Amino acid sequence: MPAAVLLHDDKHYRFTTDAALHEHPQRTREDQVVIGVESIGLNPIDWKCNVYGFGVYHFPWISGRECSGVVLEVGSNVDPSRLQVGDRVAVASTNYRDNRTSTYQERCIALAENCIRIPDSVSFEQAAALGVGFVSAYASLYDSMRIPIEPSASVGDKGQRDWILIWGGATVTGLLAGQLARHSGLRVITASSPRNFQILSELGVEETLDRGAPDTVVQRARELGVKYVLDCVGDKTGLFGIEALSRSGSIAGSSGRSSPRRRTSSTGSSTHDDPGAESDNTSYSDTEDPIRVFVPLVKAPKLRKLSEVDGDLLSGGKSDDALVRSFNRTDLERGPDGKPLPPVYDDLAIRLGEVVVKRFHEHPDTVGRRVTSLAERLLASGFLRPPPIRKFGGGLGGINAGLDALQRGEASCEKFVVNVRDTPDYQIPVYPTSSRDRTQAPAPAQGRDFVTEALQDLQVV
Predict the structure, then answer these.
(1) What b/e sequence results for 88-119 when a residue is b if at least 16 CB atoms lie within 10 Å of its CB, and e otherwise?
(2) Integer Cα distance of 353 and 449 in angstroms
């Protein structure tokens, strides 16, 4: 079976049909399905596999985190109303250790609840751009930030709606997160390259600011009273995101040295999040402004919590803003070794969230189902627009060219994809078609889910 594999002595993926290197992936569970892969989305983690050995657990190794294709086989435990042979689907593979779920091959295995049914209006190439970005955007907004998926009746007035700043708004995840935020009633401001302002505006972003002028972005975010920041770029931009959430006077405010707030139930008892929770009856036990949330999707900046630093830090005439802005100053506070210390943020007013995408496959019947259900509804209604795509020729043999371009930083407001059918000398299979009525949007999944803060071995991407 055709595949692109990584061998121990390779610096690039090797196209092969050698059965000794790669066999047809087989189902091992009755809640799994077999996918005939049509289009494959390329991700930065894939070039890091062969350059740095990142996430490679054995050889031969197959990468690929997302694809689109046709359901060829379903397990006996798969509800026919959920998936049938012949359904067109988009797939996100978050189970990185299982090569059967990797997508750089003609066929792959997926959990039924990790497949997104796609309408006829969405091409296979467009669908291949959805998987990882949509799962990451969902986890960032609804798990980590704890934003209600469906807007409440009170968000009709624009002046009453919360703002979210997306740094890297033209990244694939940023494009999808902005659309999800709008669906949930938020107002969106982005920091991106000016050449991408038009498409962001077309997707409903209200304010588009130049990422090359971070001070301007921070100032405008403060003026708007931004409550949420999603950083899709890195630790340096993450520091600007923290600054954007800070308020003048909040660093050394009346909250002082009290312990960080504990999340409590409506009955007043302490609570932990359940990965399969269907609803949320919890709130923050504080009397200050609603807590603000920063989520670093790529890499979290190094910071110190205000509740854990020496009280002398606030002496010496430093202003409140100087604490959070210290990363951008020459008069940094220094430790005993003379090296600059990480900046301080007010952990009583700003919560740092983590993105745990592996919950998508670890809890398929709860988390996985809610993610795919929302994607299906928004695609069927036409609300959700896939990111722009850039196709690389050569099929499985063209993966390296696409990954090299990713490594050079050429992607801008686009997803790189390849079509398996473009593979040289590829014998194009005839896939089954579904008799399902695809004109009706799926019903929404019930409830919301939250990130389990107590989960160990967190996987952040």
Answers:
(1) bbbbbbbbbeebbbbbbbbbbbbbbbbbbbbb
(2) 14
Instruction: List the structure tokens of 224.
Output: 């708007």
- The burial class, CB within 10 Å (0-12 / 13-18 / 19+), for 193 is middle
Burial 251-290 (b: 16+ CB within 10 A, else e): bbbebeeeeebebeeeeeeebebebebeebebeeeeeeee
Residue-wise pLDDT for 276-323, tens only, equals 443 333 333 233 445 899 999 998 888 888 877 755 444 443 444 444
User: Are 75 and 112 a contacting pair, CB within 8 Å?
Assistant: yes
Half-sphere exposure of 263 (CA within 13 A, CB side): 14
- Cα three-residue angle 239-340-329, rounded to 5 degrees: 55
Provide φ and ψ at 331, rounded to 5°: -95, 55
What DSSP designation does 387 have?
P
Number of other residues whose CB lies within 10 A of the CB of residue 31: 18
3-class DSSP state of 306: helix
145-192 per-position pLDDT tens digit = 999 999 876 666 676 899 999 999 999 999 999 999 999 999 999 999
